Amino acid sequence: MVFSDEDKILIKSLYLKEYTAQKLTDEFPEKSWTKHGVNKLFRKLRDTGTFDRRAGSNRPRSARTEENAKLLLQKFPRMQVLTNNPGQRRPMNTCLP
After folding, report:
1. Cα dihedral sign, 35-41-45-48
2. Which residues have C-beta within 8 Å of that of residue 42, sequence separation ≥ 6?
3. Is residue 36 left, alpha or beta, with left meaning phi > 0 and alpha meaning psi from -120 to 50?
4. What's the pLDDT at 9?
């Protein structure tokens, strides 16, 4: 369930007035909100006080940095580092002597 920013503001204000998820879904049937979706927003509000994502909840960044590439070259001097893009593949024979 995707809630618009306006929906989140409305839900937060009604949550502070002690509305339940059931009451919200009953009062706004045109919104097609689910009780589960509203309860997830309530839980986020209780836990963090906001609807924003928690710190560190994003996908981790790649471990392939300039420093790590240099360390790899020191450990494996024959290996060629062709690119800094971890998603780009290279042929197997570029790593062989």
Report:
1. positive
2. 15, 21
3. alpha
4. 92
- What pLDDT, on a 0 to 100 scale, did the predictor assign at position 88? 58
Asked if residues 21 and 54 have their Cβ atoms less than 8 Å apart, the reply is: no
How far apart CA 72 and CA 64 sit, in angstroms, is 10
- The rounded distance, in Å, linking the Cα atoms of 67 and 73 is 10
Return the SS3 of 30: helix
The answer to whether the predicted template modeling score (pTM) of the entire model surpasses 0.90 is no
**pLDDT on residue 83:** 47
Task: For the chain, give every domain's residue range.
Answer: 5-48, 64-97
CB 21 within 8 A of CB 34: no
